[in-house]
Structure formats: structure tokens, C-alpha cells
Amino acid sequence: MAEISFPLPDLGEGLIEATVLDWLVEPGQQVERNQPIVELETTKSALELPSPQAGKVVRIHGAPGDTINVGEPLIVFEVPDDTAGIVGTVPKDEAPKRRVRLSAVLDED
Amino acid sequence: MTTEPVLAAVDDDAAPLTHHQLRELYTLMAAVRHLDTSAVAWQRQGIIPAYAPELGQEAAQVGSGYAVDRTRDFVFPTYREMGVARAMGLDMVGYMSTHKATWHGGMYNPLESRFAPIQAVVAGSVLHAVGWAHGQTLAGQPTGEMGVAMTYFGDGASSQGDVHEAMNFAAVMKAPVVFFIQNNGWAISVPTERQVAGGSVAARAAGYGIPSLQVDGNDVVAVFEATRSAFAHCRAGNGPVVIEAMTYRRGPHSTADDPGRYRTLNEERLDAGEDPLERFKQRLLAEAIADEAFFAEAQRLAEEEEETIRRGIEDLGPRPGAEMFGLVFQEPTPALQSQATAWREESEHV
Amino acid sequence: MSETITAMPGTTDVSAASVHQMSMQQALNRALDEVLADNPKTVIFGEDCGRLGGVFRITDGLQAKHGEDRVFDTPLAESGILGMSVGLAMAGFHPIPEVQFDGFAYPAINQIVCQIARMNYRSRGTLPMPITLRVPSFGGIRAPEHHGESLEALFAHVPGLKVVSPSNPHDAYHLLKYAATRPDPVIFMEPKSRYWQKGPVNLSSAATEVSANDDGTAPSGSLTGARVAREGRHVTLVAWGAMVSRCLQVAELAAEDGIDIEVLDLRWLKPIDAEALARSVGKTRRAVVVHEAPLTSGLGAEVAQLITQSCFATLKAPVERVTGFDVPYPSGDLEDEYIPNIDRILFGIQRVLEYRRG
């Protein structure tokens, strides 16, 4: 598993920080891309920030009321190291299982 | 936009949709939306290995599927037509079983459902629709009552040579077939402008002398009406029609896709347009066709339905391995039967 | 005395500086990166190869690094991709097209068989086709229909095509670089179920030319031939692609029963290294061919004939085949029933062990 960290993005018009109003997701939760993850308040407005990534939330930064600067860590996701590409499942390397035993009288002629 | 030549026949059943029908359309879209987003969650929960979401295409799929006459028409889907399947009343456990990797074509009965097996090959079944439609002509179906084939494909599939062959065949043979294109903006990572020269699949129809309609694919009523008039045109013996429903693939190509590699959230927001469900809801509210209680009920029904389907999928065990051998031919060969015997002796898990 | 040679196939140069631990996915990506850098006439294209980096990320980052003229997305049409490759080759380029999945090669068969494979012949050698067609191949990842097929016999049957399939990251790196510098069309079949397993890759070019055999009997370890993946005395398992690692597992299990298995990784499926087959089976006198593709007219039949031709007099048993069945590649739930499993391979070994003439 790898971790991907997303910083607080520039929310536009030169804003340099935002205040966390409420987290809509919590660590351990699977979120989808575009799913709202946090309510933020800037000096201009309150807004819901959509998730840039599908994955499992590992950490969130900032409790309600905390101020986060643009560029500082906001949320960390866990994603598989080896995504299976566009379809399919990465096979697991499992210990070999057998039912059949070999028996042979080997004449080494 | 309508490109020449125009549709030759006007639907004799062109009456506006009743309030009941409009509400039914919404109920279907709500069911499809909830099942679709749930299926992504099923994948995350390990219930199914993969899924191809159709989020954002509910209006295009439900609106077109709702126009099919299940007593005489036949639909040829791709692998992303869950909304059409639901609108046509398919056994949805049988449909979703393809995403559980139970059986490639799905477990529903295509003949009874009037819905061909799920097709993984892009543009793979477009010519089949032409053949089925020409079969209606050959069978001497009376004009005005002909069965119509509807083939679904996307902007990506429109690049395949088979699509061009199909359109040409259909036009030459005047086959009663509706080519229903969902132009959802993306073929995995490639946007329509890098896929479709000229920007419109519908515009190509003119070259084959086929009437075409480009409709707002996020407007379920517009999609339904376009499809209904196309069916009437075909049924009357006037040959094929091309419909291009302009919509947007709001989700990933599949549950393993990462759209962040090729488009930004901001681009998605700008390009996706208005959510087809929300938009229809606002219309129904504004025209006092439905109230909040109706929408709450639609959501409740959707959730209930999803639970039933999920339980069905969870209960679905793997097919017996013997089916691998038994379903290859109608008349099995001795060689295949001996392979089946060897398989049973060496690896059947009982 | 058996020896497992899985770490560094075909290699004696194991200087730490040139050995890297990487997945086959990374090894292929690196090979393509170097091929693009080495030869300005190479171009990579296909569906989602550019910005996305391919659905398996084999071309990841190559467009950003080498530019959109060298690495590009095409519209979604396999026949178009392969047909355009012919014209690019005629114009002096070395195309490295990708067909996104094995089953998507079927729509391009016309261009592959009727055009790529025979333009050199048709033009009396004046229009060579230096095309390296990459095809993520074989099954094992619970994918949808047409995403798990084994087309090697189909390709090998076509005059004018060469076919190769690596089984590990090291071979993948060197074989792709080798294929992409050849003047003839090569179908490069990548075992997609092995994309993510890591292994040592010796990046030194010297690592490509050394025999895997201790006695130095070239060319069995060289890039153009088969590779002895494990030495053994009693039975030869012949395999390629993803089946090589399964055969190595089987060999370990057989050793518990006192049976010493040699595993021959064929690598080239056309031309097949007949000398390596003769050398190995000449020693073990028993052979089992293992492949995922269906049995009938599969490549196992060709391998069995080559062994019979060279070893008929000393063979202790007819060559056995353990393969997929004559059925369409099944859905994920039945995949493990289809692909040769450990027990079926052991049964095949048992059959050649207990066979008695007369």
C-alpha cells in the first residue's frame, strides 16, 4: 500500500487559507473521487471540497475550527501499490496447494 | 440539431408523456442511480471484482430503454447499459452477475429479455443489430408493425470500422435499426475531440443517407421522444436512424480507473453539465407533477431494490465447471467430452 | 543435482550496480524508455498509451518525457492501429503499437495476417516491417471477456511473424529491447498476471548474451533461444509466459516426492528453440508441455512434434500436454478451473513417469 497526500488546494482568487468547519469523512473510510470530504470556510464563503481521489482515508488534518494554509497537508489516502490497470484483479502469490502426489519407480537406464 | 435527411415518418403515438409516465421515468432513473453507485461500493467491499459505472448517463439510458417495445423489438447493449437493462425490466441479478465474474454475457435470458448478451467487444454487436433488423424485413414483417433493433455504442466505438460497415449495410438494406450513440465525452482517457473527427457521430449518418438526431442526452424526456420517433420511422419501413445522445461519463471508466490521470475535477464540473436526475426532479417539481414525498418514496424504493439485488448477487455461487464444456456447442464433440471427463477426474472440487 | 536459476536468467554479470529489483511492468516501461531514447524512429501508440500511460501503465510517463509525436493515443480501432503501423514502417519508422488486451487483436487480424506478416515478402524484401506489437496476454486476473486469451498458436501459425513471451522482469526488459531493434515483425506477448511481481533485472547489456547453462552451451540461455529456468533429471516441463512460474512451483513440489524436474522457459514461440528442447528432453527423456491456450492445435502440439523428431528413440513416454480446454476462456469464477493448475500438471508428470512401452 502507498499513501497519497493531498494539500489544501488554492480555492481561487488568491485565498491563502481556509478554516475547517466539518469533516465529512473519517480515517478508515473508503471515499470515491468527487465525493465531498470536508466543509471549509474561507473569507468569501463556505464550501464543500470534493475528493480528488478514490481510496481509503488514512489521515485528516485539522479539527473543526482549525485554519489550514494553502499547500499544507489536508488529507492522506491509502492506495494499492499495484493497481490492476483498467480491469481485473492483481493475482496474489499464494503458497502452492496440491492434492496429487507423484509416485514413480525410476529406472535410470 | 437535426442533420438532413429528416425523419420520414412522424410517430403516430407522439402524444406527450403522461404525468404517470414522467414519474415512472424518474423512479427508474433513481433506481438506476442508486444501483450504479451501490455497485461501485460493492466493488470496494469485495462483493464484485469490477464494475463499469454509468453515472451521469441515466437519462440517456432510461429514456431510450423506455421506448423499446418488448413484444417485438430487440436491444444490443455494450457492457455499460445497466440503465437500459433496468428500464426494460431485466432480471437485475442476472444482469449484474457479469460484474461478479459469474458468466461473461450475464445470466439473464436474452431471448425473453429482448436484450442481447452483454458485449465486451467495443462495437462488437453493432452489425448484429443490422442483421437482426434485416431479418425482420426478410421475415416479411408488415410495414408499420416491424420489430426494430436498437444498438448501443459510444463515441469510442464509433472509431471502429464495424460501425461504418453497419451503417452502410443498414442504409443499403433499409434495415429497421436504431443506432443509439451515447457520446459521454470519454473513451477511457481519450476525449471525444481526440476520438471523433468532426466532433459528431450523428453528422456521419448523412454520408450514408441515414436520418440522424443529436439530442441532449441528459434530458430524459428529449431522449425518450427522439427514440420513440426513431422507432416509428423504422417500424414504418423507412430504414435506419442514428441518434447521438450527448451526455457525460461522470465516473471512472471502471472501478480500477483513475480519472485524475487525465482530467481534473474542475474540468469534470465544467463539462458534466447539470446532473440529469436533479434536472428532471426540478422540472417535475416546477410543473407540479411530483412532490418531495414522491422523491423520498422513489429513493426508498431504489434502496429497497438495491438490497434485494445485492443479496441476490451475494448469494450467487460460482457456476459449476461442467458448464464450461457443456455450453460450447449445441452438439458437443467427443474430444470436448473427453476433456470434460479428464477435468472432472483431475480438478473438480466437490 | 537440481539448481534453481530464477534469480538471474541468462546472466553471469551480477555486479550490484546493474541489478535492480523491479516488476515486469517497470522493466517493460524502462525498456521502452531506452528504446525511444536510442532510436528516434521508434514511435509508440495505441489506445490510452499516451496521457494515461496505458491501462497497465507500461507506457507511463513516456509521453511526457519523449513528446506527443513519439508516444500517442489513437482513436479506438485496432485494425486502424495495426494498419497504420504498416504505413509508418514503410515510411521508415519502427512502430511499437499496443493492442490493449489479447482479445482486441482479433479485430486487427486482417492487418496483422494479411499485411504486416507479408509485406516484406510481397515487396521482395524492399519493405521490411520492423513492428513490435505489444499484446498484454493470457489470463489469471478475473477480467471481462476477451481480456484473458492466449493467441500464440494463432500468431505462430502465420508465416512472416515472430512471437515471443517473457516470463520474468529480466527477460521482459531484454527481450523487449531486442524485439524493438529487429527488422521483422515481432508479436510481444506480455503475461499480464505477472506484471506486478518483482524480480531482479540486470540492466547490463552483457547480461543478454550469456548462457544460463554452466557448461556454456550457447545459445540456450541467449536472448534468441529458450532458457533453462530450473535444471532437473527426470522430466522436462516446457512452458512460457505466466506458466513458467507455476511450473517452477510444481518442480519444488515434485522434489518432495523425489522427482527432479527441469523447467524449460521457451521464451520464443516462433521460432521455437528446437535445439534447447532436444538438449533438455534428450537428458530427461520425458516431457510435459504446459500452456493456457486451448488444447487442440495449440502450440503444445508443435512442441511435442519437435521433441518427437529429435528424441523419438530415447523418449520413455509420449509427450504429454497440460493445457486450457477447448472452450472459450471462462469468466473469473471459473478461471481457476480452466488454467492448468498444480494438480493437473502433477497428473501430467505422473502419466509420463508411469508410462511403460509395450
TrEMBL record, chain A:
Molecular function GO terms recorded: acetyltransferase activity; lipoic acid binding
Keyword Acyltransferase annotated: yes
InterPro entries: 2-oxoA_DH_lipoyl-BS, 2-oxoacid_DH_E2_comp, Biotin_lipoyl, Single_hybrid_motif
Protein name, per record: Biotin/lipoyl-containing protein
PANTHER family: DIHYDROLIPOAMIDE ACETYLTRANSFERASE COMPONENT OF PYRUVATE DEHYDROGENASE COMPLEX (PTHR43178), LIPOAMIDE ACYLTRANSFERASE COMPONENT OF BRANCHED-CHAIN ALPHA-KETO ACID DEHYDROGENASE COMPLEX, MITOCHONDRIAL (PTHR43178:SF5)
Cofactor(s) needed by this chain: (R)-lipoate
CDD domains in UniProt: lipoyl_domain (cd06849)
Keywords of the record: Acyltransferase, Lipoyl, Transferase
Domain of life: Bacteria
GO cellular component: cytoplasm
Organism: Paenarthrobacter sp. AMU7
Residue span, Lipoyl-binding domain: 1-78
